[in-house]
Design a protein that fits this description.
Helix content: 25-40%
Order of helices and strands: EHEEEEHHHEHEHEEHEE
Number of strands: 11
Mean pLDDT: 92
Number of helices: 7
Structural class: alpha+beta
Radius of gyration: 17 Å
Number of domains: 2
Strand order of the largest sheet: 4-3-2-1-5
Largest sheet: 5 strands, antiparallel
């Protein structure tokens, strides 16, 4: 059985495989990609929590899909391994920054999520000129706040905001929030967000 995690992209066979009614924007957009994003929520009875994304920030819809209806799973890390930005829209700042970002993160297990990751995986134009570069990182060792600030400084020198989320199993937290924290930060978990003092304690 293929492991499925938050931020993974799932291609399905039909719009009918999704639970619930889809709004007009989703009915127009979704058939182009047949792809949904795994949400950070528990998987119950092989029903995968997923989200549908549109062109606008407010166009987000939560749904579920049965594991048996999944055709292909694409992880954010595969997008990096395949260097899919080489054949993508180079005029977008977030995509244009990826070769340099890749060099900075060459010793990290990192991936691309958000609208840029979705576009790289599906070839649908979901990213914009103003899109952030959403990244995920499976960290093996913790960083100090100063180390986090330095890494973010290096990632944010290419004219686009790079947002790096640290992944620990099913949990995740913002490296930027951690670098600026003076007390607690928000940790996203499968059962909802919690406040923690040290996000590196699994």
């Amino acid at each position: 059985m293929v492991e499925i995690n938050p931020h993974d992209l799932l291609k399905i066979r039909s719009i009918k495989d999704l639970t619930g009614n889809l709004p007009d924007w989703a009915l127009k957009m979704f058939p182009e990609s047949m792809t949904v994003v795994v949400r950070r929520s528990p998987i119950v009875d092989d029903k995968i929590p997923v989200g549908i994304r549109g062109m606008k920030r407010e166009q987000r819809l939560a749904s579920f899909v049965n594991r048996a209806d999944i055709v292909r799973v694409t992880t954010p890390y595969e997008l990096v391994q395949k260097q899919l930005w080489k054949t993508a829209r180079q005029d977008l700042p977030a995509i244009n920054a990826l070769p340099a970002v890749s060099e900075i993160l060459k010793n990290y297990r990192w991936g691309i999520s958000g609208s840029v990751g979705f576009e790289l995986a599906t070839a649908t134009h979901t990213a914009k000129m103003s899109s952030d570069l959403d990244l995920v990182w499976q960290a093996e060792n913790p960083l100090s706040q100063n180390e986090a600030k330095e890494l973010l400084k290096r990632l944010n020198q290419f004219g686009v905001h790079a947002d790096l989320q640290v992944i620990q199993g099913g949990n995740g937290f913002s490296l930027e929030e951690y670098s600026q924290s003076k007390s607690t930060i928000m940790m996203k978990t499968l059962t909802g967000p919690i406040l923690v003092e040290n996000p590196w304690n699994k």
